[in-house]
Amino acid sequence: xxxxxxxxxxxxxxxxxxxxxxxxxxxxxxxxxxxxxxxxxxxxxxxxxxxxxxxxxxxxxxxxxxxxxxxxxxxxxxxxxxxxxxxxxxxxxxxxxxxxxxxxxxxxxxxxxxxxxxxxxxxxxxxxxxxxxxxxxxxxxxxxxxxxxxxxxxxxxxxxxxxxxxxxxxxxxxxxxxxxxxxxxxxxxxxxxxxxxxxxxxxxxxxxxxxxxxxxxxxxxxxxxxxxxxxxxxxxxxxxxxxxxxxxxxxxxxxxxxxxxxxxxxxxxxxxxxxxxxxxxxxxxxxxxxxxxxxxxxxxxxxxxxxxxxxxxxxxxxxxxxxxxxxxxxxxxxxxxxxxxxxxxxxxxx
Length: 350
Fold this sequence. Notes:
By secondary structure, this protein is α/β, with parallel strands linked by helices. It is built from 13 helices and 13 strands. The strands form three sheets. It has a seven-stranded mixed sheet with strand order 2-8-7-6-5-3-4, sandwiched between helices. It is globular.
């Protein structure tokens, strides 16, 4: 008997999510994982590392509730927003019976997490302008417990129409939870759906400190929902999901000083995004799609050739499954300038 035969058939056949780190690369400019270029300093205490952490640290929960403008009973913290996705599937979907629905092109972990737990996946592609196809979603709701949508959407960068999100919440009111992934909302906070939580008991929002807060390595995420949903998720979460140093750093990031620093850095990144968008838009044959996160989706005449040239030159970007498109994370101004200059030079040669 081989070890692979002991594994579940679903896992043996599963294609794992191809994260930026799994894809590798070697270079000096890394704009492939939507990470922040800022490396902020924090104080770490070591006097409590001999004790297990609290499942839901009160100080952290209250800090994020204050930041989001909601009650602490509406907040759950986890190991990144990715764990929030898994908790929702484990709590609400019966294996080999229920389904999730999501709308590609979008974040691939919704499907992978569902498949890992033997939960079926239904897809309803976004429309040509990357908005929700409400009519097709309505036709595919049978057996669906969770509907995942992302705004700003990754990798397209656009915001979903707010009225469409509300229509989806109404449509699914008696059938499913609508999970709005707001991993990038800190770059455009005015577009958040957090104000809808009290109106729609079937709304769930995913958040993270990985992007705007420059804490991708911390793995700290949040699920915002009704207290009833939070209580159910607490039944399936691991006993000690938040390491003590994670709590200490996250609370500092959410302090008044930390929030002020994040706001300044977001303004800087948004300015760099505008710079990169303007520069790329001037190049012949290049289409830059409007972006509201810390990345841009860009269509080139020959994305494969350009991507390979960038990669070989040590500029690591992210190839998109969308035809001839490359996703470019927003780095510091020097990184954006060098990336733009190299792309301009490569396109001039062709």
